[in-house]
Predict the structure.
Amino acid sequence: MGRVEKYLMERLEERGALHMALVDPARMNGKEARKVAECAERAGSSAIMVGGSIGVSEAMVDEVVLSVKDATSLPVILFPGSPTGLSRYADAVWFLSVLNSTNPYFIIIGQVQGAPIVKRYGLETLPLAYLILGKGGTVGFISQARLIPYDKPEIAVAYSLAAQYMGFKFLYLEGGSGGEPVPPTLIRAVDENVEIPIITGGGIRTPELARRAVEAGADIIVTGTLVEEADDVYVRLRAVISAIEQAAQRRARRNL
Ligand code: 1GP
């Protein structure tokens, strides 16, 4: 097990559920990312994810990753939309496959293009099954996903089981940035069927939405828009992270 995976699994064991802040290098420069990362670390975030679907060059990713690493000791995990989302300065990469894409590029070809770069840079890989649901937002459009409807949890469960049986170590239920969050009923259905940690993101902008996702079984909550738009990033993040911590404690008590 790599260093970042070990850190995540230990922290999940200890805290029950985690938060990660997502920085899109197409929307934030190094200076802005540094401020977000400092606030996220102070607020109790567990990692900084760096990535985006459109307009991300490797130079842009490098700038953001270097600024974040200079400002915090949190691990930086890449969240690439294509091989240009890789950076030699990051700690790890979500080595992801959009399992419900209709285009093989997003399932395996982009990964084939990127794999030798990942090896050359010595990046730790975190194998991630990425499922895009609901309206899917920009990432759904760009990665040509056959979107899983929010009222069809059985389809999400079937994909998630397939992902687990194929050996993926993490599962991402994505509602699309800025969209409607993945419904708790769907997260619960997936959680009842798979063992691997469930990450969710897309439209989580309040403590209440984060709480509902964790109570339904989400292990890692990702917020992007919240850290991009809020003036009071620290205060907003602290409220979301404390909701995550409380929901995780309640969930642990329930499962005793
Ligand atoms: C993208 O789900 C994330 O993968 C972030 O979504 O920008 O809505 O927080 P938001």
About this structure: Residues 22, 174, 177-178, 201-204, 222-226 surround SN-glycerol-1-phosphate (CB under 6 Å). The chain has one domain: 3-255. The mean pLDDT is 97.
